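Schema walkthrough. Field components (list of strings):
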Amino acid sequence: MADPTKADEAFKILVGHYGKPLYAVLYRVLENHPDTDDALQNTFIKAFRGFAGFRQDSSLSTWLHRIAVREGLTLLEKRKKHSSNTNIDTTELPFLPADSPFDGDKATQLLIRAVATLPEKQALVFKLRYYQEMPYEEMSTALSTSVGALKASFHHALKKVEAFLLAHAEII
Amino acid sequence: MIYNTSNEEDAETREMLDRLPAPPKPMLPPEGYLEQLAQSFELLQKKPIAEPIAANQNSRFAWKTFAAAAAILLAFGTIWLYQKQDMATSDKVQVEARLSSDEIYMYLMLYPEEIEETELLASLVLNANPTAPSKSQSPTSFSQPILPQEPVTSAALKEILMEELEGESLEDLL
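Field assembly_structure (string):
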């Protein structure tokens, strides 16, 4: 795309069309606005630069989601390297921050807390599958994991979430 | 429940999903954020972008490849050392076989009446199945399997003995 005006226009269309759904996916993975913002910018720039490599064997939306999930994971990895206290104490109930953007009912908030107790990979699979309804095939490509392993991961995550919800049912 | 891709799940998973509370609503970007992002194309093009996750995986892959290559090299090195050791052992066996043949000749010189039995002896020697000597065995042990360099026949043995005796008859010697 040699014409800068056209390139600028194309970028606006891309952001306008896919900005919201990609932001939602990235927020699920990163859970804060600054990181989501950073990952979303990278997603669009990478998609724009690599558009020539888009083989159209999947939809544009699938392709963009794949880039976004990879960007989200990259940022998670970075965050993990910079942060020393990543271990979550599952014996205590994790609390949502006071300014949590999630405004669901108590049951949904408890679900979010339950997911926070999951191991990183299981939490990611759970969020992408249950929250975002991402098909396994798409997730498999984005996470470089087999569909079977993802299904197993999701199943284990579900069991743990259910156990957590049952254990804390009196809160609801 | 808004979850609608459960046809990919098994029955047990579907049951668990039905018991779960509704997932939280999708997070929307702050007001005006996407508009601002859409306007900043020129600026974003100059943004240095971090290495993607695939690059990290490649780095891990490189380490795995290096480790695998090192393991293969070690394995080949070990095999080469064993082979070298084995060649040295087989050289020893050949020397030992020659020594053992000499022993046979000496024995036959001392006991010529047994010359007639050399054919049997030779066949026994030739048909012996040579195996590498065990560590517990003495390298000069006569009972060890031996592999002669050339087939030993009674005629050849007689000739050798006659040369050794320098024309003297066996009876004279005894």
